[in-house]
Amino acid sequence: MKLFALTLLTMLAFAANSVLNRLALAGGLIDPASFAIIRLFSGALILGLIVLLRSAAHPALLSPRRWTSVAALLAYMLGFSFAYLSLDTGVGALILFGGVQITMFAGALVAKEHVPALKWVGALVAAGGLAWFLWPTQDTRIDPAGAALMGIAALGWGIYSLMGRGAKNATTETAANFAIAAPFSLLALFATTPQVAPLGILLACLSGMVMSGLGYALWYAILPRLASSTAAVAQLSVPVLAALGGIALLDEELTLRFVMAALVVLGGIGLSVVYKPRRSSRDLARTSGDS
After folding, report:
1. Is 291 contained in some domain?
2. Average of pLDDT values for 192-218?
3. Distance (Å, rounded) from C-alpha 177 to C-alpha 181?
4. Under a CB-based contact definition with an 8 Å cutoff, are residues 185 and 44 in contact?
5. How far is the C-alpha of 172 from the C-alpha of 169, rounded, in Å?
6. Which residue range is the domain that position 158 belongs to?
7. Which residue has the higher pLDDT, 269 or 173?
8. How many whole angstroms separate alpha carbon 142 and alpha carbon 145?
9. Confidence (pTM)
10. Is residue 290 assigned to a domain?
11. CA distances from 8 to 13, 157, 205 (A)
12. Residue 192 lies in a domain
């Protein structure tokens, strides 16, 4: 029960990033560049403190892999913030989540990993559902610029997640990535006119320190206790939670089109993540012989 509560708390933190970002931008409390910058700097601060308290080993900072991760993190953070100028909370979260899964699936293909048939079916269903949702109609039109920016954010986060596979200390690596990315994010100020209100700063700090910094730290702490399929399925709740937050706090409309698209996209992703390869009799015999 405790593990379930911690997992739900983490998913709420991830969904809250979408709600807080949209809340700050829709209310004119802050510009998107400043929100992303404050989120990165405050996240780097709290993650750095966590690493110092744990006395963790310092990671290598200047490797090519590090710079790829930093670039991907910046693409996610900036694309995410600018996209919410025109996208509703749930819409943005759905595009982000679906895009991340498609990116990671493409990464598996590039790495020449074996992809089972069920994963192909799930990926195609998810991609088809997302394409149908984004297709403009007379009744519903998703802002193409916002969707493209969230697509860039999804690509960035997908690559960032792929680069983070196999990290010996995920929290330490994340802290280093945030610390390096934060100063580079200041360049985004050239793309917009800074507009910052005290409440906007508070929302950005809340997103960076609590929902991102502490949220990521908590997720990495409970991740070893979750089966990989359970962890993946748990994240299916994020777009739904974000949409509910947008409805409650921003009076956003829950449309039938969104509900149907969410069911198709999340259903397709669900098909992909619940797959478990069957072990052959030879593998079972080898395992029993080694024990």
Report:
1. no
2. 93
3. 6
4. no
5. 5
6. 2-277
7. 173
8. 9
9. 0.84
10. no
11. 9, 21, 22
12. yes
Number of separate domains in the chain? 1
- Backbone φ and ψ for 275, nearest 5 degrees, come out as -65, 135
CA pair distance 19, 241, nearest whole angstrom: 9
In the chain, the amino acid numbered 242 is: A
- Residue 145 tokens read as 């610029």
Q: What is the C-alpha end-to-end distance of the chain, expressed in Å?
A: 32
User: What residues are paired with 196 via a beta bridge?
Assistant: 30
C-alpha closest to that of 214 among 21, 25, 20, 39: 39
* DSSP annotation of 138: S
Do the domain assignments include residue 287?
A: no
Dig out the tokens for 194 from the structure: 């800074």
Q: Is 236 helix (H, G, I), strand (E, B) or coil?
A: coil
Residue 30 sits at φ, ψ, to 5 deg, of -165, 155
pLDDT recorded at residue 283: 47
90, two tokens: 């749930």
Over residues 115-131, the pLDDT tens digits come to: 788 878 888 888 888 88
Q: What does 163-232 look like in DSSP terms, one character per residue?
A: HTTT-S-HHHHHHHHHHHHHHHHGGGGGGS---B-HHHHHHHHIIIIIIIIIHHHHHHHHGGGS-HHHHH
SS3 content of the chain, % helix, strand, coil (to 5): 80, 0, 20
Cβ atoms 14, 215 nearer than 8 A:
yes
One-letter amino acid of 248: A
